[in-house]
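FW: tagging you since you asked about this chain on Friday. Here's the raw sequence from the shared folder, copied in full. Didn't touch anything.
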Amino acid sequence: MGILDETGAISADPAEITDEYIAAISVPTRAFLVLCSSELEEYVEARCLNFLSECVTGADERLQHNCLHSLSIHFRSNIGKLLENGGYSVDFYSTTQQARRYAKEINAARKKAASPAGNGETVDPRIFNKNTLTAKLCTWYSEEVVASSHGISDSDLVGLLTPLGFSSNLVRDVCGTLCAALQSLAAARGEAAHRSALSSGWPFSALPTPLSQQLSIRDTWSRWEAVVESLHEFEDLLTGA
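HL: got it, structure written out here
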């Protein structure tokens, strides 16, 4: 794309940044911003899913408990609907009132099954226990959090991590430099992805074009480089380093 030269070094901007130069590198810089942002988004989402898998299957019971507890709070409405409409009984993360109510329903179902009309068969209620809840929570996180995340800004990072048990304040504190770099990259990526490269003709002629006015090759690469150099903060957060 002309971002890097044949040696792999960043291509130098000319001494004078002219409109002609900006127009010439507009397409490659825009394409670079969109593509690198897409790769970054996929990487962050994959690491979050991997972290969840490690929490569920790992030996650290405290980490597992904290993660699942946070997910159960985040998806409390999903759990409520499942209990209300799915015919489940609950013995995990339940309130005293829920446990008592479902215990009564279980007893009533067993008594009915044991009566002559029920042919003496025992009905085993569907139990919403740790294993079934864990599977549901992981599926909901993948389908409703990761699948609906479509950006690489600092708020997108927070949105992926808070259901896993990381407070927004903690994310912004530990990943302060990364969040600032993501915000800068996301702003440029948004301009690249959602504005026409050619602002000629109605109705686009009146629209400002901040991207073409601001971003040289060096500007574009610097935004990406800032993210790469601070990405270790995200890894440190996940690993507890």
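FW: Residues 19-57 form the longest helix (39 residues).
HL: agreed, and Confidence is low (pLDDT under 50) at residues 200-208.
FW: great, closing this out.
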